[in-house]
Design a protein that fits this description.
This protein is an alpha+beta fold. The protein contains 13 helices and 10 strands. It has one domain.
């Protein structure tokens, strides 16, 4: 009969450990796509304090969303997680107050810049893996309740908290690929279709040309629920509207990147964050260094750990092949190569499926 352990000595030491070992693979995905260079080139935000670059500040706002942390204050523990910072290439993690100040002092043009960045991303793979002759855009709204005097928050339809102020964000999602095309933060008393025409007409000309079908409350209910409850929209609400809208646009940007990344591991369907985060991110990582060689061991506690290890090894191998063979390619050519493989299982037209990523 097995006995409980005796003469056991327990020591608490967090050095070299992190709960989010799988973050490295997502970071490598962004690095191969040269996301930092892309953000630096397409965003203009003059600041006096340049301890963190503009791209680093955007990534510091992105990673709490990816990890499922619904508030900036909740992400403050990442400041003391050296292994997480090492895996994500951050020299340190900004203080929550620094992130709030970054959002508050953003110029008025910054919101439109984020809109153009997301549009450029979508325009890059609008015809991948095959040419699209038609797009179906699902337009819908949801209720985000606030408990305070936030700017533009009004009393409107709120089935759960009747009489409470709320926002009524409008979302535009492409039904075939589940990509978030745009979002607009509206007051809680906004009508269902209020701002829909302006939202659609703000898309690039190529999208408006082939987007011939618009549906109100279509077949993308799960995507709307995912964005609200799994991507922090219920927590990233601030006193002023500008910061809320900026975080909504950043959420749209990283939601699309995460959707593309998960297509590498799960090519045949859209994986919601509530299931994809434990699969791809949650794993105990231990960082050790010996003989000038750094080793990171990732141990998944998921029930499907062997399958996860196999999928992540395949993703890692694919990214290594891209880095080895695409060093001389431009950023646009890299995007085309990587996105074509990521999106190979999405049907280019009804009844036509492309093969998934080869191992």
């Amino acid at each position: 009969m097995r006995r409980s352990p005796r003469n056991l000595r327990i020591a608490c030491d967090h050095r070299g450990l992190t709960h989010f070992g799988g973050t490295y693979f997502f970071h490598e995905f962004l690095r191969v796509l040269q996301l930092r260079r892309f953000l630096t080139k397409n965003l203009d935000y003059p600041r006096r304090n340049k301890r963190y670059s503009l791209a680093q500040m955007i990534l510091a706002l992105i990673y709490p969303l990816v990890l499922g942390l619904d508030r900036l204050e909740t992400a403050s523990f990442l400041r003391f997680n050296g292994t997480f910072q090492y895996l994500t290439g951050l020299q340190s993690f900004p203080d929550p107050q620094t992130l709030r100040r970054f959002l508050l002092q953003a110029p008025e043009s910054f919101l439109q810049q984020l809109h153009r960045v997301n549009n450029r991303l979508l325009q890059t793979f609008i015809h991948l893996p095959g040419h699209r002759s038609r797009l179906i855009l699902d337009l819908d709204s949801t209720v985000v309740t606030v408990f305070g005097r936030q700017e533009n928050a009004e009393v409107g339809y709120n089935p759960r908290y009747r009489g409470k102020r709320s926002y009524n964000p409008l979302l535009c999602i492409e039904a075939n690929s589940s990509y978030l095309w745009d979002t607009e933060l509206r007051p809680g008393n906004a009508g269902t279709w209020e701002g829909s025409v302006e939202l659609v007409t703000s898309l690039q000309d190529e999208v408006r040309t082939i987007a011939q079908h618009y549906r109100d409350r279509g077949d993308s209910e799960n995507n709307f629920d995912e964005l609200k409850n799994q991507w922090g929209w219920a927590g990233f609400t601030t006193h002023d509207r500008k910061r809320c809208q900026v975080m909504a646009r950043i959420t749209a940007l990283i939601y699309n990147w995460w959707t593309i990344f998960m297509r590498l591991g799960i090519p045949d369907k859209h994986a919601e964050a509530i299931t994809s985060r434990p699969l791809a991110l949650h794993g105990i990582a231990r960082q050790t260094r010996h003989s000038n060689q750094t080793t990171v061991e990732v141990t998944s506690t998921h029930a499907k750990a062997p399958l996860i290890a196999q999928a992540l090894a395949k993703v890692s191998g694919f990214l290594k092949r891209i880095k080895a063979s695409a060093e001389q390619l431009s950023q646009a050519a890299r995007w085309q190569l990587i996105l074509r493989c990521c999106l190979s299982a999405i049907p280019s037209r009804q009844g036509s499926w492309k093969p998934s990523l080869a191992s």
